Each structure stands twice: as C-alpha cells, then as structure tokens.
Amino acid sequence: MLVRGDAPAENLLVTGARVLDPAAGVDARIDVRIDDGVIAQLGTSLDRNGHRVVDGTGLVLAPAFVDPHVHLRVPGREDEETIASGTAAAAAGGYCAIVAMPNTDPVVDSAAVLGALVEDARREAAIPVGFLAAITKGQAGAELTEMAELADAGALGFSDDGRPVVASGLMRRALQYGAVTGRKLALHCEEPTLTRGAHMHEGAVSAELGFGGYPSVGESVMVERDLALAAYEERPLHLLHLSARESVAALRAARERGVDATAEVTPHHLCLTDEAVRSLDSNVKMNPPLRSREERAALIDALRDGTIGAVATDHAPHARHEKEVPFEEAPFGVTGLETAFAALYTHLVEPGVLPLETILERMSAGAARTFGLDEPRIAVGSRANLVLLDLDATWRVREDGFRSRSTNSWLLGDTLRGKVRATIADGTTVFSELRA
Amino acid sequence: MAEIRLMRDDLLPPKAPPRRHLISIAGLTRDDVERLLATARSFERALEREVKKLPTLRGRLVLNLFFESSTRTSSSFELAAKRLSADTMSFKASGSSVEKGESLKDTAITLGAYDPDVIVIRHAHIGAPALVAGWTSAHVVNAGDGKHQHPTQALLDLYTLSAEFGKIDGLHVAIVGDVLHSRVARSNIQALALMGARVTLVGPPALIPRGIEALGCETTTEIGAIEAADVVYVLRMQRERMLEGANYVPSLREYTARWGVTPDRLRPGQKVMHPGPMNRGVEIDPLVADAADALIETQVRAGLVTRMAVLYDLLTHGPVAVQAAAMHEVA
C-alpha cells in the first residue's frame, strides 16, 4: 500500500522530448498526452486540447524512479528528515514512489505506530510512500512482530534494516510466517561477530589507515545463510544494499537454482571504492562499507545482467553535528535521493560502463518489482509516473541545494552531469524546474 | 573520466596556499624527511651548549591538546617548544569540558580563539588532527590519532637509525608484535619504505592487518625471521585498544612464548628499538630492554630534537641553510 497527500490529477502534454522506456520498447521523439493523471496518447504533433504544455525539447522523458530503501527518520528524528522533506527530496530526485524503513524511534513494530505513519503520509507525502515494518519487536532480534496485523495495517514488507536477524531459528520463523502475511522480508545481511568494531572495508586501505575492518565475508556468510533458509522454506526474500563480490556470487547461484531472491545496490557502492575513505570524510562512512575495485566491478556486472535488479539509495539522513566528528564516532549512512540519477549517469553512463537504458530500468521497473509495486510505464492507460532528464546539464552538489533536511551527501562539492528537471508522480507534477 | 566543465566557482582567484601540517608520513617526500632530520641534527648540536634555549620561535604559541594519555610525546613536545622559546599551553581532556560532553569541534574552536601558531594534538580517533586543521587557523601536528599515524615517532626513529647506522637506505627492520592496533607501526612502515629500508612485520596472524603488504613490507608469523634484520623494532601489546573477547591471541602467556623478544632470539649486536611504554616481560624481555644494544633511551632523546625540527620547519618553512643562520644568531 502506497499513500500520498491529496493532489489533483493533471492534464498535461509533454512535447518534444526523447521518450525512453526500455521495458516498453519505446525510444522516440514523440509527444505524451496525460488526461486526468493517466497517459492517454503517444504520438507526434499531438493536439494540445486545453492541456498544460510541458516543453521537453532537449530532454529525456523516462519512467520515474522507485526507491525501495529510504530512511525517513520518522518517528523520532524529525530534525534529520520528515515525510514531507524526504518525499520532496525524492520528487527532486525523479522518484514517483519510495519505501521507508522501520528503524525509527520508536521502531515501526506495531500497527499503532504504522497507522500513525500512514496517516501522516496521507497528509504530507509529496509522492506515494510505502512503509516496511520490523521483523522483530524493537528490532531486537528476539521476538517476531505481529506481522499479520502489520500487513493488514499496510506494511509493504518486513525488515530489521540497520541490523541483521542474527538467530537462524528466528530468521526461519519469519520466512515461514511470510506464507500468512504474503509479504517479503528485506534483509540486512551482516554477521556481527565478523564486523565488530568495523568502520570500513577490510583491505589494504583499512590496513593503512588503521580502521577496524568489515570483511566482505561479514556480509556474504549471512547472505548465504538467508538464501539457504529461503530455499528450504521456499519463500521469497530481498537482499538489501549488497556490497560484496561473494554475496553477488551466492545470489546468482541461488537464483539459478530457482530461489525467489531479489537484491538492490546503492549508487555509492556502484560509484566509489574504499579508496574514498582516505579522505577520512564521515560522508563516505556507510554500512555496508565501500569496498574494493573488484567488488565494485562485481556489483556493476550484477546490475548489468539483472542478478541485482534494483538501484536503492539507502538514503540515510544524519544531523550535521553527528557527522562532524572523527570517522569512527560518526554514524553510518549517507543521503542519496537527490543525487542518485546524476551520480550514476556521471560515473557509469558517461564513461560507457553501463548503458542509460540499464540505469533507467533498474531505478524504475526493476526497483518497483522489489515489493511488487506497479512498474512505471510510458504506455497508454498507465498512470503518469514520469521523469524529465536533462543529460547535458552540469551542476555542482551544494549543501544549500538539498530539499532533504540533511546534507550528509558523499557528493558534496562534486560536479555532476545529468539533472532531473521535472517529476510527475501518480499523475501530478511534484517537482519542476522548467520555466512555465 | 568524464570531462568536467568549468563552473563559476572555478573562476574565482586562487586561495592562499594551504597551511602546512604534519598529519601523516604519507604526506611527506624523501626530501622533506631529509630536511627535517638535518634540522634535528643541527638542534642536537645546539643543545650541547651550556645554554640550551634558542630564541627562534619567540612569541609563538604552541598548544598541546592531549585527549589521550602520554608521557614521552607530550613532555617532549612541551620541552621542544620551550627550547625554541615558544610559549606553550597544555590542555588535557581529563578535567576539561570534554568530560561535560563538549565536541572536538567546539573544543578546537574554543582553543583556536587564542590564535595558537601550532596545535599539537593526540586523540583516540583516526582523523581528529585533520579535522582540527580544518576548524582552526593553526599548523597542526599529529601526535598520534588512534590506530592511524604517529608521524613524529617515525621521524625520531629515522633519526635514531640514521645516527646509529649512518644511513637508512638498505637497512632491514623487523617490526614485531601488535601491528593491528599500532599507529607507530603504520607511520614507521611508511617512513622506512620511503627512505629505502626493508621492513618485515612479524606477529600473530590476527595482529597483522590483512592487506598491509600494500605499504611495501613483508609479513610473517615466524619469530625466527627477526634474526635476519639489522634492527628489531618491538611494539607494545596494546591491550587498551583491543576489543574484549576478540581472541587476537589465546593468551598473553602464549604471545610471550611465541613472539616475545628475548636474548636467545637475537643475534649478538643486533639493535633493538621500542616506542614505549614497554610491557617488560610481555613483548620484550627485561634483559633485552636494558642491554647495551637497545636504542630505546636514544629514541627518547631523539624525540626532543626531532620535535624541535618539526615545530621549526612548520613555522619558518626553513630549509637547512636558513637554519644554520639562525644557529649562528643564537651563538
């Protein structure tokens, strides 16, 4: 269930753009007419018919993005993000839907907390937002939440993101109960006894800098366990923010065996390596950590061949004063909603590493499939979920340019290519920097 | 990589050159090290005089900011500053607002308001000196940041080696023990490699960080490997930095039995160094620590002149020639 604030469905005519929807097989310079929030006609020189005209000349019109992994920080840390600010940031990033994680304070582990969030989202969400609920009460890893009731109250799925479900027996019970809830588990895979005291990837850079190392097997042994349990229980699962080569190999093998497993990867894991930590900048500290060149290459390969089907930002806002401390004292996590497309376009598409079509598919339809959401489509009869991209725009990431309440971006000060110019979510223009 | 277009910000006039700091050995060139060692040598000669104070840094303020305990480093920085006639101010975290929860940033900005010329900082966390360098207008000297770097220790060790052997290039140094938790080891591996020495790390598998070979050293778990070295550099078992229950070694007793540096594991005349403080009877046998071949006390003396050289170099950007003139003036 996705919820958003009230907004009127619009009548629009987008003209002159290169319309690009890889999944629908569309790549043409055509007009798109939207009647009452629904795509009504594709073609050349369409009649304006009283609709507001959006001039897309020189831009790419693509299906808008979906983010299966966002931290909205409510309830509890409204100083870092709110539903309003987080969804506004998402709109500016080209997203038409996002999924919020339940590791809040209090944790989203009861229908009461979830119900309050859904109510708030109906009032203030700029774009449709869905909520995951916790797998275990308080995400303490001991007792299952009342998952059936939470599913009825609107939980899109379940996750203890931020921490792993350590006990294998409990993990198994959670998977089994999925038959009742019909919802998927989204798993943060980390073996905590292998990652104690860890601040970055274990390798030559951590050896040199002296940071406690987070070995890639600290993730992959848990990925392998969870895939084995999912196979045994014949239940689907989703692997959050994969970072390790061994995890990718295990996922690929499991999918070949028929395990119903999806996975996501973040823009920062696709664009950076642990070399970035040499800056000692707390804005490159995240869990899982940035890894080696080889692992980054494995993630890119997995995104290319679809083993990893979704890009997720793991947008994790943190207060400035909590990040302005030595690296080891800083919390894990970086923001990403407003920079994801430009980062991937700059670091992967422009240098020729991945085609634009792949990035668009994994950020949109692939990401939507994670929790069974409607895939944004540029086709007659589809709800208008569209993004207008300016691939020639060059812009600098600045602290004062964010709609998010937090500025802990790994891209601060960087110059990026590719900019979201307008976003239409669920039939409504939710972001535009085009001249009227 | 993609072509980056010029933005308006890029067209602004260039800023003043950045202030010089000593944060990491990785930031130094071989020439920098040679210059610092030469400066330290000239200070050593000056300290042989009856009056041991030089007027060089008169009117400058050196602020010692120690968030972690220290004997050797804090005392030698303080004395180094005094020998150069600088004013010194020492700040220890215990008994300060840090105990009331004041952040590093606020502490740095508060003390920075006194306009110190140099801030010497020791902190439990990696990267703290670099942060302070960004928050104040002082030159910053890293006196140890967590497990990361202790560059003045490495410089004084180079000074000691160079005085003892007359060269560093081609020396073989075995560093023994808890490399994982050691900022001294990290700075020394880089410094020795920079100056052309060969470095072998010896210790238990869990205390030799995976991937450390990339710094240009060899690793082994075999204590017998120290015999081939010109110098055996013994590291302290840093129990205070070890995670409880992490089982880096089964026991200290087994560590000592396997990797303790004892007289029978050394060749006659083989030189031994230790950055202090020592755990006698753990990583180093008391007989080794007190033997004539131990350079441990020499290291402490080298610490004073090396730190004088660092303060001098940062504040005057003085090459050796200028240094000689300054010495003359004092005489």
Structure description:
The complex is a heterodimer of chains A (436) and B (331). Chain A is of the alpha/beta class. Chain A has a domain at 64-354: Alpha-Beta Barrel (TIM Barrel). Chain A has helices at 83-92, 111-124, 147-152, 168-181, 204-209, 217-233, 245-256, 267-271, 293-305, 320-323, 340-349, 356-363, 365-369, and strands at 12-15, 18-21, 26-29, 31-35, 38-43, 52-55, 60-63, 65-70, 95-100, 129-133, 157-159, 184-187, 200-201, 213-214, 237-239, 261-265, 310-311, 386-396, 415-425, 428-432. Chain A is globular, with a radius of gyration of 21 Å. The model of chain A has no long low-confidence stretch (mean pLDDT 97). Chain B has two domains: 17-149 and 301-330, Aspartate/ornithine carbamoyltransferase (Rossmann fold), CATH 3.40.50.1370; 151-298, 3-Layer(aba) Sandwich (Rossmann fold). Chain B has ten helices and nine strands. In chain B, the strands form two sheets. Chain B has a five-stranded parallel sheet, with helices on one face. A four-stranded parallel sheet of chain B has the order 2-1-3-4, sandwiched between helices. At the A-B interface, helix 5 of A face helix 4 of B.
Which features does this protein show?
heterodimer; A: 436 residues; alpha/beta; TIM Barrel; eight-stranded parallel β-sheet; six-stranded mixed β-sheet; 20 strands; 28% helix; 22% strand; globular; B: 331 residues; Rossmann fold; 2 domains; five-stranded parallel β-sheet; four-stranded parallel β-sheet; 10 helices; 36% helix; disordered N terminus
